[in-house]
Structures are given as C-alpha cells and as structure tokens.
Amino acid sequence: MNVAVLLIGYVVCVLAASLLGGILPLLIRLTHARMQIMLSLVAGLMLGVGVFHLLPHAVAHGAISIDRAAWWMMLGLLFMFFLQRVFSFHTHEVPGEDGVEVEPTHDHSHDHDHAHDHAHDHDHSHDHDHAAPSHAHSHSHGHSHGHALSWGGVAFGLSIHTIIDGLILAGSVASEAHEDTAGGFGLFGLGTFLVVVLHKPFDAMSISSLMARGGWSVKARHIVNACFAMMVPIGIGLFFLGQSAFQIEQQAFVGCVLAFAAGNFLCISLSDLLPELQFHHHDRLKLSAALLLGIAMAYGLVFLESHGHEHHEPKKVEQGHEGHDHDGHDHAH
User: Fold this and answer.
1) Spatial separation of the C-alpha atoms in residues 208 and 57, rounded to whole Å
2) 3-state class of 159 per DSSP?
3) Is position 292 within any domain?
4) Which of 202, 213, 222, 267 has the fewest CB atoms found within 10 Å of its own CB?
C-alpha cells in the first residue's frame, strides 16, 4: 500500500475518533469504572507498542546503538512529563457522572458520591479532606488544578501532544515500509495507529468537557476538536521535513524519532496507570485484566508484522567485529 495513501487514511480515522470523543458522552452514559477500564486497555496497548515496536524499530531501522536509543527514549519521556506538568492536560474524567447533565461538563468535584456502578468510597489514602472543595478532584489523577484548569490550556498541551503523535505515526510507517521485504499486509505502523486512534477520544473528551462547562456550544466544541485532530498531519509533515533535512543520516533520524516516541508512550501510559493503583482497589482485577489484554494485543501485532518484514535485526550489528564472512566476502578489518 502506498505510504501517502495509508497516512491519509490514518489521519481521517484519527479525525473521526476525535469527533467521536466529543460527542460520545451525548450518546452513552460513561461511568468512572468503565472509563478507567478502557483507559487501562489503551494504556496497556500503548505501553506494549512502545516496548515491543517503537524501541526495536529504533535500533533496527535507525542504525543507532541501543545506548543512543535509550538516551532518546529518556528524552521523550522527560519531554512528555514536563509538558504535562506545565499544561496539566492529561486529565480523563467522566462527564455528567452525577446523572444530572447529559452533556460533558468535566466537573472535577464529583461530590465524592461516586454514583457510578458502585457504592465504594475508594479508600483514598491521599490525606484529602473530602469536605473541602479545594480537594474535590480526586479523580483527576492527582492534578491540583481544580476549576482553574481552562480548556485553552488543555487544548494547547494536547495539541503539542498530538503533533508528536503525528511525528510518531509517520516515523512508524516510514520505518516499517522501509523494512518490508515480502509485501506483507501493507498496514505499516498499525500498532502506533491503534494507540493514537484509541487514545484520541479521551483527549477530545477532556477538551469538550471543559468547553461545555464554560458554556460553549456543541458546534464550537466540534470545531475545536476537529482543529485539535488536524495537528496529526502537521506532525506528519514535520517528520518528512526533518527527514529531508537529514538526508545523509535519514535512518539515524528515523531511529531517534522512534526512540523518542517510545519514551512518550511510556510516560503517557504510566500516567494513566499508576494513579489507579491508589484510586481503584475495588476494580483492580478488572483494571489489571484490561492492562494485560492491551499489552497482549501489542505483542500480538509483532507476529502480524513478521509476515511482511523482520525488524529485530540491527542494520550494523557486525560492525566493529573482525573476521566475519558476509555474503561470501571476507571482511578482515
């Protein structure tokens, strides 16, 4: 399949997923427990894709050492960590959870009644005063932003995040297309695409919920979500611009992008997973099963890819060794 056509198809699907995230709370009632199970599944998929796909591709295709890949992975993790710390955009809450409002409101208070599929108090052990309004955001993954959080700041942070998603998606597709030797299925970058398209509705929901709380119309929310999703093709364009700028070391450029992407995915997935260790003692079996299923899905995609190409063998693994015979040639360095 042509790479350009494939990327266009991926972008259309991401745009649809973003718009769906904006209207999903209007169509079905999302409970907090269901939201967290879906998040655990997607976070597991993201974690698996980062470890099983992006990092191996970075070394195999990019012709970079594992040490260099580790540095870029750490850089990607820290970049996403500080991006979240500055903009506090990674908040996935349940809109209209109290059953009063159908439209998403992103209300951080939740009143701690937790009327969503259970009557538990969640045994929160964070020294939160449940009667204090300033601490009425226990389900916001520990972010202490409360009602001061604006949809503009969240949208800006998520837009940067989405541009990086475009970079990652283009890098994955370019890497796998380069390695394809047997025709394969042609769905290059499938694992990365699934992570982006499945996680995007949660991000769009965050923006829509905050806008709804601010009194914005449904049409305005759809427009903002569409613009937000279109950051993906911008990221794709930046990838190919960067690749053309590093013509001499194109493979190394792709490798660094993929390692950086692995760090991004690790940071985002863990920011979804780790807070729930404290918040959801009663749902831990369901959440753990969803996490393991997501990781298993990511690992299963490795076997799907192997029908078309091999990506676990580094390009320059024999360099620096003496006396190896490759393709009948004696390299006596």
Assistant:
1) 35
2) helix
3) yes
4) 222
Strands (E), the chain: 324-326, 329-331
Provide the domain limits for residue 270.
Answer: 3-107+146-311
β-bridge mates for residue 326, sequence order = 329
In a domain, 119, yes or no: no
Q: In the chain, what is the straight-line distance between the N-terminal and C-terminal CA atoms, in Å?
A: 41
Which residue, chain included where needed, has tokens 């809450």? 93
Residue 141 lies in a domain: no
Sign of CA dihedral 109, 115, 118, 119: positive
**Is position 316 within any domain?**
no
Q: Do 188 and 31 form a contact (C-beta atoms < 8 A)?
A: no
3-class secondary structure, 151: helix
Mean pLDDT, 10 residues at a time, the chain of 333 residues: 86 89 76 85 95 90 84 96 82 49 39 42 42 40 45 82 93 83 68 93 85 84 85 93 79 91 95 78 84 95 65 44 43 42
Residue with tokens 């939160």: 128
Neighbours of 4 (CB within 10 A): 11
**Separation of alpha carbons 64 and 70, rounded Å:** 10
111 contact partners, CB below 8 Å, separation of at least 6: 98, 136
Radius of gyration of the chain (CA): 21
